[in-house]
Amino acid sequence: MASIPRFVVVTGTGTGVGKTVLTALLVRRRVRQGRPIRAFKPLCSGGRDDALALEAALGGTQDLDAINPWHFKAPLSPALAARLEGRRVGLGEVLHHLREQSAGCPLALVEGAGGLLSPSTADGDTRDLLRHLRAQPVLVAANRLGAIHDVRAALACLPPTLRSKTQVVLMAPAVPDPSTARNARSLADYHPADRIIDVPRVSGAIQSGASAPSAALNRRLDRVLEGLGA
Ligand SMILES: Nc1ncnc2c1ncn2[C@@H]1O[C@H](COP(=O)(O)OP(=O)(O)OP(=O)(O)O)[C@@H](O)[C@H]1O
Ligand SMILES: [Mg+2]
Question: Separation of 203 CA from ligand 1 center, angstroms?
Fold first, then answer.
């Protein structure tokens, strides 16, 4: 019997917080374990670098155009960048593509554009995508001063059923600050501790797959995957 895909949407407290780095690491981990996975960045704007990173992590098992069917030139939200090109992408089209391309695969990771509420399609944002896919959210935040507010604000925007199953991932910044080592513990006052994982700085070689992650990093990635029931 073909499996029904479990959708996971990797969103964030904003842009540039580490969604692609994390998604690619999770994909590589799963591929190395010989387990099936699909990955998507359905809407790209200002270049297709994210989709290319996912394509590389998938090791040739998924075409670039399947990973990323819609891409726009301007480095703006996809909704606005599309409008500038006289194009319109609806949420329904994105949902259709994701469901069709994930059929038969047990796990599909979808990187949202920007943050949870950034305009994504002409008629929706990543929160809408999450709801329609009945997906589990992974909420990525930069592990710096302000992370507690950013994560709490994003969690507050989710309906309670989604909020409670959100995996929060704190990505180490290039330059840590005094909050970096404390944020995970502090956030546990507001969200289940077993759903908060901090990920250290990862070298370019590990990100590109040229070097293997350390055992410690793999344990963290496995915690995220286990929390996704994957
Ligand atoms: N844990 C980490 N280790 C090393 N570099 C990181 C880490 N987290 C984030 N970065 C770096 O931060 C920058 C932004 O990361 P990334 O592209 O993954 O963010 P994003 O949330 O996917 O951004 P966008 O909104 O543009 O999709 C990149 O240069 C990336 O290499
Ligand atoms: Mg990205």
Answer: 11
Task: State the total domains in the chain.
Answer: 1
- Name the closest-CA residue to atom 14, ligand 1: 16
Please give the number of the atom of ligand 1 that sits closest to the Cα of 200. 1
Other beta carbons less than 10 A from residue 75's beta carbon:
10
Q: Which residues are catalytic?
A: 41
Ligand 1 neighbourhood includes 172 CB (under 6 angstroms)? yes
Could you report the per-residue pLDDT of 137-161, keeping only the tens digit for each?
A: 999 999 999 999 999 999 999 999 9
Beta carbon of 51 within 6 Å of any ligand 1 atom: no
- For the domain that residue 66 is a member of, what is the CATH number? 3.40.50.300
For residue range 90-117, list pLDDT tens digits in order: 999 999 999 999 999 999 999 999 999 9
Tell me the torsion sign for CA atoms 224, 64, 113, 102.
negative
CA–CA separation, 230 and 222 (whole Å): 9
Q: What is the DSSP letter of 149?
A: H
